[in-house]
Amino acid sequence: MPETSVPITVPDTEKEQKPKSKSRPDRGYLVICWNDPVNLMDYVTHVFQMVFGWPKARAERHMLQVHQNGKSLLVRETFEKAEHYVHQLQGYGLHATMEREE
Amino acid sequence: MKFVPGPSQDAAEAVLVYRIDAREEALLLAMLRLYPALDNSHHRISQDPKAAASAEQRLLEESMAQQRAAHRRKVEALFQGPQRFFKEVLGDRHLVLTVPQLEWLLQVLNDVRVGSWVRLGCPDLEKSAPLNLARASNRSLQAMHICGEFQLALLEAVK
């Protein structure tokens, strides 16, 4: 799987609001999907729709980010939810990982 | 194989119908016999090399193993009762799936596609570099392409 030096950034349109109190869960885990040359574009779009419940346009936007930039930041979540999403995405055969936000 | 659009139905009860000929049916069953093709150790929870020995990595591998076992049971059930999936309708052969069946079938076919690609040495298909056919197995190359064609045909129903 080719590696990329593209930095991890959060798209402006999907920035999360800062927690209002310290009791809110730490959403410091990034779920990232990485490009590979084997998963079909239509299939990746379908998987994003199924796993995240996204409309097709949003799923396609992330699929194209993966294809063109080598990766796409899908969600920023708590540890448990990020792990859950990675299990689901990998169950579909996508190259997805969870990374601690620095 | 071609999707046959039917009347709109509630997603939970929708039945998806595909016209399929005898050769395609045999090919589809042959692909399903290759499942699972990916090792559980193929999956990585993180890019961080330190995570390779983590509890989260082990949990991911266990989760993938459980999913493969569950899918394997579904595939075996399909072989035991193919009449549940393949029907003869007015001279045409049809593959009939519910939405949940479509989802696991897509996952199974993708596992065989990705597993075949791994066996070929993970070639960069987008750069159209010639495959090292001395190392490549014809069976893996064919399985990768055939599974991709079935995946695209199945996805016609959800477009």
> What are the segments of chain A in which pLDDT stays under 50 over at least 5 consecutive residues?
1-13, 15-21
Task: Please state roughly what percent of the residues of chain A sit in beta strands, choosing from under 5%, 5-15%, 15-25%, 25-35%, 35-45% or over 45%.
Answer: 15-25%
Tell me roughly what share of residues is in helical segments of chain B: 40-55%
Give helix and strand order of chain A, one letter per element, not per position.
EHHEHE
Classify the oligomer: heterodimer
Distance between the termini of chain A: 23 Å
User: Shape of chain B from CA axes?
Assistant: globular
Largest interface: A-B, 22 and 34 residues
Largest sheet of chain B: 4 strands, antiparallel
How many DSSP helices of chain B?
Answer: 4
**Tally of helical segments of chain A:** 3
Rg of chain A over CA atoms, rounded to whole Å, is 13 Å
Strand order of the largest sheet of chain A: 2-1-3
In sequence order, what are the helices and strands of chain B, one letter per element? EEHHEEHH
Q: Number of DSSP strands of chain A?
A: 3
Note the main sheet of chain A.
Answer: 3 strands, antiparallel
Q: Kindly, what is the distance between the CA atoms of the first and last residues of chain B, rounded to a whole number of angstroms?
A: 16 Å
- The whole-angstrom Rg of chain B is 18 Å
Account of the 3D structure:
The complex is a heterodimer of chains A (102) and B (159). Chain A is α+β, with helices and mostly antiparallel strands. Helices cover 38% and strands 18% of the residues of chain A. Chain A contains three helices and three strands; from the N terminus they run βααβαβ. Chain A has a three-stranded antiparallel β-sheet. In chain A, helix 1 crosses helix 2. The longest helix of chain A has 14 residues, at 56-69. Chain A is globular. The relative contact order of chain A is 0.26. Residues 1-13 and 15-21 of chain A have low confidence and may be disordered. Chain B has 159 residues and is an alpha+beta fold. Helices cover 48% and strands 12% of the residues of chain B. Chain B has a four-stranded antiparallel β-sheet. In chain B, a hairpin with a 2-residue loop joins strand 3 and strand 4 (92-98). The longest helix of chain B has 26 residues, at 55-80. Chain B is globular and about 60 Å long. Classes of the chains: A alpha+beta (102), B alpha+beta (159). The A-B interface holds A 1-2, 32, 37-40, 42-43, 46, 50, 83, 86-87, 90-93, 97-100 and B 38, 43-48, 56, 59-60, 63-64, 67, 103, 106-107, 110-111, 113-114, 117, 122-127, 144, 148, 151-152, 155, 158-159.
